[in-house]
Amino acid sequence: MDRSPGKDPGRERRQRQAFLKDLKDFHAAKGHPISRFPYVGGRELDLHHLYNKVTSLGGFQKVSEKERWGELTEHFNFPRGCTHAPYALKQLYYR
């Protein structure tokens, strides 16, 4: 999460909570409720952060076309041995 000066942590927390609520509601409406959030490399994946990073790079198709999933892993501090992280991010974002 970006902790730059001028950022309002309360606002960011509310945005994250609203995003996760919308995501849960969307999946529930489609008949696939989210029972727990995914883990990658032994850590819960911040889906809001993933969404923001992917959209800032132009969206799923652009990130996939330019093969930037590996680059995205740098923003999540996965353990060094987590070699499947780029694939996991792509699959989880797609789902």
UniProtKB/TrEMBL annotation:
Stored PROSITE patterns? ARID
- From what superkingdom does this record's organism come? Eukaryota
Q: Where is the ARID domain?
A: 13-95
Molecular function per GO = DNA binding
> Entry's InterPro entries?
ARID_dom, ARID_dom_sf, Chromatin_Remodeling_Comp
Arranged from A to Z, the UniProt key words for this protein are: Nucleus, Transcription, Transcription regulation
Q: Which Pfam families match?
A: ARID
Keyword Transcription found: yes
What is this protein's name?
AT-rich interactive domain-containing protein 2-like
Q: Which gene carries the instructions for this protein?
A: LOC118406933
